[in-house]
Structures are given as structure tokens and as C-alpha cells.
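note to self: dont lose this again. the chain is below, predicted strucutre after it. 326 aa total, dont forget to put it in the shared folder this time
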Amino acid sequence: MRKIRIVPMAVAALVLLATAQFARAQDFPTRPVRIVVAFPPGGPTDFVGRLVADKMTTLLGQRVYIDNKPGANGTLGGGDVAKSDPDGYSLFLTTAGAVTVSPHIMPNMPYDALRDFAPVALVTKVTEVLVVTPKLGIKTVKELVALAKEKPATIAFASTGVGSPPHLAQEMLDASAGVQFLHVPYRGAAPALTDLLGGQVQVVALDVPVVIAQIQAGNLVPIGAASNKRDAVLPDVPTLAEQGYPNTDASNWYALLAPAKTPPDVIAKLNKAVNDALNDPDVHDKLVKTGATPVGGTPAALGTFMKAEYDKWGRVVAERGIKDTQ
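---
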């Protein structure tokens, strides 16, 4: 008899729990939503995050704000969100490195990139462009490769850290051209760019939004796009593949993730808000003008894309023997 009483009570409890979760999802959001950006204020990821968050605030009727948590190539901020409650109020605007590269090179990751997050939407794709100063006197990647062959392992190629898209661009060019650059990792784009302008390093590959102003001012010369097609903002700059160096697509991207087990209805609301924000003419134009390509799409599409990127960079890391040295 006791079993007969317990089972209906258990079923009733489950029904009540499911009803409560559904009600919370229907009402979402009822308080501010936090988006963690794992880089300092003022950078390209922060710019994209704030632009999209401002529009999402209007669309969702609750404040959506940016929480900057820089460190460890994005994994510090990612770990914060992965451990947050799966209720949609803590989100992670990740770059490619934090979820598809770092897991292959960092021995003590604070999360499982494919298990501990729920995909929301792919926000933007960003081209990595190789730039040099006019003082170097070159205008093509072939000329840069020729210098590297003359002086093996001495041409300083800056990056924003081990396993970052700029570093991967360098590694892929090394492999494709049969040369060896001197990798010089920095803790971000700003110091790498400062030292390039100052002549301490000879070349760097950075997100187009980071360098477009310096290119337009004539302070930097773009010599090649590390992507599978030319960038819309720099249509006259050929890809590395066009210049004879295939398998050199190191494109970066920014995606919005939630903690795993976030209710599907909440994910759907967030996904719609992101897509609507990206389709807003003002947001769209501002992103395009800075060199970021708005993407959007479904959570499922992002999940498939992330898995493909995870596998791709795993192969590159293994083939190039890239290891975390920090």
C-alpha cells in the first residue's frame, strides 16, 4: 500500500517541478542578464558584446550587461559561466580559442567545452589579417616568407597568446610555406599591436576590427587574410591561399553560450533575441563597418559548427605540437 501512495506523490512532484520550470521559462527574463566577456573592456569581443547586449536589452525588456573577466585565453570567464546556474541569466560570449583550441593544449581546463555549455547562437565571424609596418618594406606574404627563409626562426611573429587565432595563423603559415617564424606571445592584442608599431616584432595576425583603423591611417600594411575568402572590409587584400599557401584559414568567431541544462525555452528566447539584434540595421551596419560579419542561426547549427572547429583545431594542435607554456 505504501508504494501505491508514494508513486503518485512522486509523479505529482515531477509534474509540479516541470510546471514550475516551464513557468520560469515563459516569464524569462525577470531580472538582468549577464554576458561574460573573457577579455578587457575596449577590445573587439567587448565591442561586439556591448553592441549586441544593448539591443537585447530592448528586445527582452530586461537589462543585458557585460561582465569582463579576462584571463587564461578566455577560459577564466568560461569557467565562471560553466559553473553558474543553468537559468539563462549568466551567458558566455566566447571566442574560438576558449572552447575549440584551449581544450587541446591546457592540461587543467575548468570546463568541458562540448559538455558544459548549451549553444545559443553564433554571433559573428572575424577574419585574421596579417599586418606589417611600412618600414619592413614588404607588401605580400611571399615577400614575408622569403625573409623567413633567409633568417629562419628570427622573424618575430606576434600573437595574443599560445593557441590564440593569431598564433594558429602563424603555425598554419609555417606548415604551408615550409618556414619557421619566431613566435612571440603577448597577453592580448593591444600590447602585440604596440610592439609591432614600435618595431619590436615584424608581423602579427589580428582580428580585422583590431587593426582596421591603423590600416586606414596608413600605419600598417595588410599583406594577407588568413581565411577562406577575402574580407569585405579589405576586399583588395588576397587570402594566404590565393598567394600560394593553402590550409591557412584561422578565422576567429564569437558565439553566445549558456550553462548546460539551461531550459530549451530559455535558450530559444535568447537565440531569438540574438538573431533579432543582429538583423537590426544599426547593429548590423556597425558590425560590418568594423570588420565583423554578423551570422546568427540556430543553437543546433552552432553546436555542429563548434564540434567541427573543435576537431579541426585538435588536429592542428597535434600536428604542430602546440603546448601551453604559460
